[in-house]
Write the structure tokens for this entry.
Amino acid sequence: MIRIIFTVCFLFCFVAHSTGQSKEDSLVIFDYSETRKFNIGGIDVVGAEQRDRNAIKSIAGLREGKQIQIPGDDIPKAIKALWKLKLFEDVQILQKNLEGDLIFLEIFLRERPTLSRYSIRGVKKSRHEEITEIIDRIANKGSIVTDDVKNLCILKIKELFRNKGFLDTEVDIEEILEETENTVRLVFNIEKNEKVKIANIEFTGNSEVRDGKLRKQLKNTKRKKAFFKKSKFLDKDYKEDKKNLITYYNNNGFRDATIVKDSIWRDDNGELNIRINVDEGDRYYFRNITWKGNSKYTDEQLNNVLGIVRGDLYDPDLLEKRLRFSLDGRDISSLYLDDGYLGFTADPVEIAIVNDSVDLEMQIFEGPQFTVDNVLIKGNDRTHEHVIRRELRTTPGKKFSRSDIIRSQREIMNLGYFNPENLDIQTPVNQNNGTVDIEYTVEERPSDQLELSAGYGGQTSGLIGTLGVTFNNFSIRNIRDKSTWSPLPQGDGQKLSLRAQSNSRFFKSFNFSFTEPWLGGKRSNAFTVGAVLSSFNYETLGLGSLTILRGFAGLGTQLQWPDDFFSSSTTLTLESIRLNDYTRGDFFVDQVAIDQGYFKNFSIRQVFSRSSVNEPIFPRRGSRISLSIQLTPPYSLFRSDNYWLLSDEEAGIIIDEAQRERGPGNPLTQREIDRLIFVEESARKFEWLEYHKWRFDGEWYFNLVDKFVLTANAKIAYVGAYNNDIGVSPFERFEVGGDGISNQNVGITGRDIIALRGYDVFDLEQNINNNGGATVFNKYTLELRYPLSLNPSSTIYFHTFAQGGNSWGSFRDFNPFDMKRSAGFGMRVFLPMFGLLGFDYGFGFDKATDNYGKFNIIIGFEPD
């Protein structure tokens, strides 16, 4: 009888737990009237080959010697405990033998299959990486495959595609048994279907603000008609956009505005429609503003900084900026935080609302003044600490100043040695001492640049090659310390630049420059020396030769007036230019080509500039403005009149020498004689070049919305003569047009090359008809930039531009509104090792030819 009852009990347990029935259900079916207690004599575990048998017994709560009651709760509880592990497809506990009061049990288990591998079908391979990343986080090779695991994979994959606008994505997982025992392969069949777009967004309840204005406040939730933004629905973004909508209302005086309800539905085409019902409420205005707790500054002083008066529109965002932080520095917090009041707080409290007016009480806590104790620098494993520390405006013992920290941050970024995205500044406070430490944590990034290019210039130029290296964090004093070499000694912030360019036919150029940014080590005095040797040898082509040797030295310093964004730079240059039968026609005097002579150019160049840009590679705000004046001594004012004229004897010698070279049977014409005399007299006239050269450059950066940056640029320059009888020098002129790179070899011959996108050099009248270059030019540019990557290892941005410029032979012909206009688009990529790369496609509107479009490649530097 007992054996029959025991068998029935075990059959019940097996059926109940293998079919998922509960104990309560079984009690309805079976009635056990007799119970008996047994001691467990032994337990065998069958089927769990990969599991610890002792662990299984422990989890089941069964052990040898334990007394159990049959029927009772012990066996069902053990089965439930093992079933909850979700490791087994089948769980049974059976009677193996019965000896008196001893019972021997068998735990029979069938393990769930494990994952051997998986594959993905239905989507492009470009999507596989992110799907694989999701699956690997949930199911690894060798892990148990359960329904929960498969369902979680389906959920996360659908979530991935929903975040891309594919709301109807379907995912099915197919299990395929492998040859290896108890292993399966999973096949993820993904059907993402069409992207669900937003057909329309409509508003109800709004009377003061039109629908179009409200739609613009939904930054990420856009209709399919919207430009620049893809139409897709993301629940997280939608919730954020609804907050933006209310914030917009609040900032326009509607402090009580709320969203009453919103509805989202699918139309017959499967597209989304959104309806938002708003309650605008009344529009409010500021009335009385009072101050409480201020002792450092009077109410009048604080009101002047706040800049909000009675009757102004109630704008919490403006109020917050004027209290906490404004980009222009006009806020109450800056007033206190720049004077050491680190614990300063200001809380606006609405004390009365009367009709449409709000009264505010500004509750201020000034606290004590803090001074800077320690200034710590971390993370600079290559750059020496003094290079960073000399740029800081925060020094021990000085009053704490937030503006000093912001300026220090800007100066560190402008060094170009560190990742601006990871620059961290902490200010731990010691309340007891009234001091604050400032910790700057930097992350080094590559700053050296390599220029390496090669090309073929046709039969005339042959193979063209350029090799240049710039070490922006060089160190002379570490030359003997091999541990600092990478590949040259570094760490002191000095700049060493070497560049060589040549072709296989006629041209070679060598450049060297060295800059010590802190000459003497106590002030920002940038000392620069350099030299350039350029040679054009066209003698094999019968066009003569040109050689230029230039040496220069400059000293730049930071100014304190009008503010410390200003700097001054003075450069002395000595240049020799030698022409030997140079008949390429680059230099002209009164439209006569100068092909002979030895010219010397000694000049001093003074530059006053102001730069407040926040980041040198991709500026988002600030400006750069510079005014330069380049002067030579006015030699002609100290010499006799017409000193350049040849005497009859000198003229005769020149004519006789030219006639001997020509030969006796071919006499010189009078025109040729006149030209010989003119060229020789011009060589005497300009033996020592004299001129005065003026130039203004301005760049302004505005962060419009999101990452869009508007750049405005203006350039204007003029070169003049001291003596009208002498005239303007044939050198130091301007050439406007071209890409500013392929014609750089002309710049070596004494011209400033000004790029004009969309135009070739000879599309401008001033560059033809033997003019020899312009004496006046202007150029204006507007660019809209958007970055794809601000990663310091590869900064990438696209831009569109509108540009206009022109050049003139004399100042009397100058017309700033007569411009050659162009527009287009381009891209820039900045790689730390290779510098700037990019392209421009410009469309010139005022070209004489029908070939309006022009494509330019940018390599190494941004053209002027």
Q: What stands out?
A: The chain is about 20% helix and 40% strand.
